[in-house]
Design a protein that fits this description.
By secondary structure, the chain is mainly α. It has a domain at about 65-170: AhpD-like (Up-down Bundle), CATH 1.20.1290.10. The protein has eight helices and no strands. The radius of gyration is 18 Å and the shape is globular. The chain starts with 13 loop residues before the first helix and ends with a helix.
Length: about 200
């Protein structure tokens, strides 16, 4: 249970209800961080717009590398919700999610390419406190993906740090997205019961 409860649809205003419907349509259930953020309508709208704009802005670095960097960041910070949701995104993109079990041993695992290892190292360097990014890391990534690509990677990793740390602070944990059984928002059980009655 999160430290701030999710806002139920019955208590939500029209904008939040529209956001909930859109989220359900897109991922099958209302993500709990979204439902917790709904207590602050302006932050809710800001976060929703930002996530949509961010999806549209990414086009330089292969999506699989971005997802791996974001997953590693969530794993490092310890956000079980982000790890759960990230696993779902990779599964839906038909990427190999079984290899995520070896993310802790990525340096020696044959399930990761050198390009993936480099992106994971960059994610680790950004996520470290204080950060440990080197000139050499950035130069190597610029050579492969250009300035715009490094900006994409850096932005996504930094943004995942913000999401993961916020979820962790608010006690938001995995919701079942990775298994295709997402339903842990508090009102889901109530809705199911009313549909069966």
């Amino acid at each position: 249970m999160s430290r701030i409860p999710a806002l139920s649809p019955q208590d939500a205003g029209p904008i939040i209800k529209v956001g909930y419907r859109m989220a359900r349509k897109q991922v099958g259930e209302v993500p709990e961080p979204f439902a917790v953020m709904a207590h602050h309508r302006k932050l809710f709208v800001l976060a929703a717009r930002h996530e949509l704009a961010l999806q549209k802005a990414m086009h330089v670095v292969p999506e699989s590398l971005i997802q791996l960097a974001v997953y590693r960041t969530a794993w490092t910070v310890g956000c079980s919700w982000c790890v759960d949701f990230g696993s779902m995104l990779m599964r839906l993109d038909e990427l190999d999610v079984d290899r995520l079990k070896e993310i802790g041993e990525f340096e020696n695992s044959d399930k990761y390419t050198e390009a993936e290892r480099e992106v994971i190292r960059y994610s680790d360097a950004i996520t470290a406190t204080p950060t440990t990014v080197t000139d050499e890391q950035v130069a190597s990534l610029v050579e492969k993906y250009g300035n715009a690509g490094v900006l994409e990677l850096t932005y996504q990793i930094s943004h995942e740090n913000q999401r993961a740390r916020m979820n962790h602070a608010l006690g938001i944990t995995d919701q079942g997205f990775s298994t295709g059984d997402a339903c842990r928002v508090p009102w889901a059980t109530d809705e199911l019961a009313s549909q069966e009655a």
